[in-house]
Specification:
CATH architecture of chain B: 2-Layer Sandwich
GO molecular function (chain A): sarcosine oxidase activity
Radius of gyration of chain A: 21 Å
Number of strands of chain A: 18
Oligomer: heterodimer
InterPro entries (chain A): FAD-dep_OxRdtase (IPR006076), FAD/NAD-bd_sf (IPR036188), Rhodanese-like_dom (IPR001763), SoxB (IPR006278)
Helix content of chain A: 25-40%
Number of domains of chain A: 2
EC number (chain A): 1.5.3.24
Number of helices of chain B: 1
CATH architecture of the largest domain in chain A: 3-Layer(bba) Sandwich
Keywords (chain A): Cytoplasm, FAD, Flavoprotein, FMN, Nucleotide-binding, Oxidoreductase
Largest sheet of chain B: 4 strands, antiparallel
CATH topology of the largest domain in chain A: FAD/NAD(P)-binding domain
Helix content of chain B: 10-25%
Distance between the termini of chain A: 42 Å
Shape of chain A: globular
Main location (chain A): cytoplasm
Largest sheet of chain A: 8 strands, mixed
Largest interface: A-B, 25 and 26 residues
Order of helices and strands of chain B: EEEHEEE
Chain lengths: 417, 102
């Protein structure tokens, strides 16, 4: 069924009884050309691009729970491409371009809203760093505007400009950045992949890898039986180390918990996404009206999808510092997701040393915005056995080679990015 | 999450700073050990970058900066946040018995 204003009107006339399910619920076949482990945004996008761009349609996405039940449903829905380092800049802009046409490509309303993202700066040094990053973006054809406090005050009059400790001096604005509806991204890719022949198999946990006598991965053991595959791709950020350990691999990744928060709904207030440059705090307003915000990692290894109070306090302090009026709304919900923290803050999309096994991991806490490009470049890698040009630096061996992509400039530290 | 410091008792985890997995050991090679550069590089690559990233009980370093300022080793379940033990980290001053009058 193609979704359009006419299908909506038609369904409305029949009391919305005529909607068909958006994707099938197939039993696993005994063999697929490609198996993707992980039915989050990245895994489903990979399956979609494999079928749509690379003509590989005998594909299964295996998900241990329900699709989008991990970080795809736990993030703060921000999209942007304001990165400064070679490797990141082009990749995230590829992603932004895919966001801009996603809804047409998928025939699905993902509520992509380019409402702008501004990174505030609070010192001369920070201004210079932001100006440099903005210039890097512009040289690469990406929009960026350096605004001063007077300009920002017109758009965001409610911020705390005159804080004696961290006055807002200006900010770097990317107007093409914004938000998207995270669940709809999952559902849109699932539906579009399914329409192109991909089997989405939920409640199917991978419990091991099937290897041949040469060690090549030739399939997976799952809670729903053994399934053989030409190639197996992992897109299980948060649990990458656990799945990789089944294949005997040890990775430069730690799993950490990141919390996110939402307040009660209020009338439209914040036009875009705002990030505080003096603490770790960022905020936007959802279309339902809730203020969605977050901050730092809790800072310790965790696979529990919940965090602790010190970071709640820290994040709320950041919010009060930059936007004191936030103290007047009640916090409604708070939750945690498990981040695949790589050692340089940058993802890994590469073949593994094991034949037949491919890795898409290490998204730290920036995976959501990368969803479309991650799917495209991972599909390229799986289909062609060579990295996509825009992901050529996201190699697993870059740590050994000393070719880290350390956007924050803080070295081998998994809990800072 | 509350951490039972062996010196200060149970405190909220905001008083503590986390270092991470206590299992990686810095490789030691004697200057004239004759090890191949590749092996030394491998050992340091493993130490600096690779992690077991345990799901379950893990031995890890915590620093009680908001209390006794001791380095501690905790055994904590990364899946449930349950602590099994917290002891003074060996090799640091706080783990030695303190004599009266010192």
């Amino acid at each position: 069924m193609k979704y359009s204003i006419f299908s909506l009107a038609k369904a409305a006339l029949s009391g919305h009884q005529g909607w068909t399910r958006a994707w099938r619920d197939p039993a696993p076949k005994s063999h697929y050309d490609v198996i993707i482990i992980g039915g989050g945004g990245h895994g489903l996008a990979t399956a979609y691009f494999l079928a749509n761009e690379y003509g590989i349609r005998n594909v299964a996405v295996l998900e241990k729970g329900w699709i989008g039940s991990g970080n795809a449903g736990r993030n703060t829905t921000i999209i942007r491409s304001n990165y400064g380092l070679p490797g990141n800049t082009g990749f995230y802009e590829l992603s932004m371009k895919l966001w801009e046409r996603m809804e047409q490509d998928l025939n699905y309303n993902a509520m992509v809203s380019q409402r702008g993202i501004i990174n505030l700066y609070h010192s001369d040094a920070q201004r210079d760093a932001f100006a440099r990053r903005g210039n890097t973006m512009r040289i690469n054809g990406i929009d960026a505007e350096l605004l001063d406090a007077v300009q920002i005050r017109k758009e965001l009059p409610f911020l705390n400009y005159d804080s004696p400790r961290f006055p807002i001096m200006g900010g770097l604005m990317q107007r093409r950045g914004g938000t998207a509806r995270h669940d709809a991204v999952v559902w849109g890719y699932a539906r579009a992949a399914d329409q192109r022949g991909v089997d989405i198999i939920q409640n199917c946990e991978v419990t091991g890898f099937v290897r041949d006598q040469n060690g090549k991965v030739t399939g997976v053991e799952t809670s729903r039986g053994k399934i053989s595959a030409g190639k197996v791709g992992m897109a299980v950020a948060g649990n990458t180390s656990r799945v990789a350990a089944m294949a005997g691999m040890k990775l430069p990744i730690e799993s950490h918990v990141l919390q996110a928060f939402v307040t009660e709904a209020i009338k439209p207030l914040i036009p875009g996404v705002v990030t505080f440059g003096a603490g770790h705090f960022y905020i936007s307003q959802s279309d339902k009206g809730g203020l969605v915000f977050g901050g730092d990692l809790d800072g310790y290894n965790s696979y529990a999808q919940r965090g602790n109070m010190p970071v709640v306090e820290d994040v709320c302090e950041g919010g009060m510092a930059v936007m004191p009026m936030i103290g007047r709304v009640r916090m409604l919900r708070q939750w945690g997701g498990i981040m695949d923290m790589s050692m340089d803050g940058t993802p890994i999309i590469d073949k593994t040393p094991i034949d037949g096994l491919y890795l898409n991991a290490g998204w730290c806490y920036g995976g959501f915005k990368a969803t479309p490009a991650s799917g495209l470049v991972f599909a390229h890698l799986l289909a062609r056995d060579e990295p996509h040009p825009e992901a050529a630096r996201f190699r697993l061996d870059r740590f050994r080679r000393g070719a880290m992509i350390d956007e924050k400039g803080q070295g081998a530290q998994p809990n800072l990015h | 999450m509350r951490i039972a410091c062996p010196f200060c008792g149970e405190r909220e985890n905001g008083e503590f700073t986390y270092l991470g997995d206590a299992s990686p050991k810095r490789p030691t090679f004697a200057v004239d050990s004759g090890e191949s550069p590749e092996r030394v590089e491998d050992a340091f690559y493993d130490y600096v970058y690779l992690r077991d990233n345990v799901a379950g009980f893990m031995r890890e370093y915590w620093y009680h900066g908001g209390g006794c300022r001791s380095w501690l080793i905790a055994e904590r379940n990364t899946v449930t946040h349950e602590f099994r033990s917290v002891t003074a980290a060996p090799g640091v001053g706080a783990s030695k018995p303190v004599q009266a009058g010192e």
